[in-house]
Amino acid sequence: MPTGKNPFDLSGKNIWVFGGAGYLGRAVVRLLAEMKARVLCVDMEQRAQQFVTEENLSSVVLTASLDVGDVTATLKFVAEHVATYGVPDGLAVLTYASTAKRMEDLGIEDFDRVNHGNLTATFALCRAVGEHMVNHAGGSMVLFSSMYGSVSTDPRIYETPMNPNPIEYGVGKAGIQQMARYLAVHWGRQAVRCNSISPGPFPNPLIQQGQPEFVERLAAKVPLGRVGQADEIAGSVAFLLSDASSYITGQNLAVDGGWTSW
């Protein structure tokens, strides 16, 4: 029976966005704020505060600084912010790590460090938040993977002197998809949903302006014939955080213009 409630409504929802001051994170934070969610934007150093100030969002978006790679600091952060702001209804994790090195130049310590940032840090954050959600009223998590968590890099796109998208990044992003599936099953009966999103080519403005030929090569690989713009991914995050996706969990949503379709 229809309830009359808008399933996409996020007004008043407590949502934490980690990596919220990055290129894609900014679009997510903007949309969630427009939808009247109570947003906590978290990023390294003072990036979140700088972004929110520049966008005149200070009245509707809270900010915090955290390096999620510091697991001890992350656990303390979650405990303190739950005590102050309550258990989040939604969690979006857009953080990542990478070396930008060729595989031949990648040290074992580099590989370990990056996967600590991409996997261990994400796991620690999600487990800490999820345990609070389980004891609250459930919630929804959205973890950011990548097209390179599903398919390999096409080295023809990355012409010399560019390095192909690095192996440790793709390995970590593939792990994010599996982490989302595992958490979805583990917490499903406690009403905690977890999904991942795999963005396709979303080069930031600096790359779009400074490397137009590279952007053209990316676009040529996309069935839609163009690269993505940041605003085009924000709606997917809002959907997965909302009740409109209440029967969706453990899935990976490719927002890639069809990149992984061939």
The CATH H-level homologous superfamily of the largest domain: NAD(P)-binding Rossmann-like Domain
How does CATH name the architecture of the largest domain? 3-Layer(aba) Sandwich
Q: What is the typical, i.e. mean, pLDDT?
A: 96
The total domain count is 2
Strand line-up across the major sheet: 3-2-1-4-5-6-7
Give the strand tally: 7
Number of helices, where a helix is a run of at least 4 consecutive DSSP H or I residues: 8
Layout: helices, strands, pairs:
Layout: E1 14-18, H1 23-34, E2 38-43, H2 47-54, E3 61-65, H3 71-85, E4 90-93, H4 108-134, E5 139-144, H5 167-187, E6 192-199, H6 205-210, H7 212-220, H8 231-241, E7 252-255
Helix pairs in contact: 1-8, 3-4, 4-5
Brief summary of the model shown:
It is built from 8 helices and 7 strands, in the order βαβαβαβαβαβαααβ. The protein is α/β, with parallel strands linked by helices.
